[in-house]
Structure prediction request, 248 residues.
Amino acid sequence: MIVIKSEEEKMKMKESNRIVALVLKEIEKLIKPGVKTIELDEFAEKLIKKEGAIPGFKGYQGFPATLCVSINEEIVHGIPSERKLKEGDIVSIDVGTIKDGFYGDGARTYAVGHVDEKGLKLMETTKKALEKGIEKAIPGNRISDISHSIQTYVESQGFSVVRQFVGHGIGRNLHEDPQIPNYGEPGRGPVIKEGMALAIEPMVCEGNWEAEILNDGWTAVCKDGSRAAHYEHTIFINAEGPEILTVV
Ligand code: MG
Prediction:
């Protein structure tokens, strides 16, 4: 588990995560019917390099691209391809960066053109669940206080949280301890301490939470074919509470 003690290391984490947020912001302009997901990937890779960083996911455990692009029933880890976005799709984009040895990680879901009301509610619920989780990320709380807060909110809105994938500590490695599930009883797991860097990332299914991996070995989908949304921020734990690093 990483505990960042120096201001210099914290600044490096901030910079890597700023680039993640920049990509997520700039890519929004490209999200429209007809765009190929590989085009989004090429755009992101260019921008990351222009900012002096390198893609954090490309080559990670063999993942072939800069972005994870997951459409509709795809939850996470979708591989960019010649597939075109369609009117009414929801598309989750997850991006990682490395700069000066430190990782950035963040994600959000976008509407492609006009999306139906339930799809928009799914997106809004997942975004808000992330905020609810971050509110609990204060020194002295325990990791599962974040988990419980996310699950309770998501289920109150009639959706379900994915169990198979979890948030994580982050720093010199993309995935560090502790794991941060998006479900569970409060008051369990490691105590949250000043200096921790955490990637909190609710993944929410419209129907049942059970997930499966497609034959490409990467793409995770909701088993019942319902849609999924995914929002992620990397945060830093200050003495007075959480600070979101994935911002521009
Ligand atoms: Mg992550």
Observations:
- Residues 7-27 form the longest helix (21 residues).
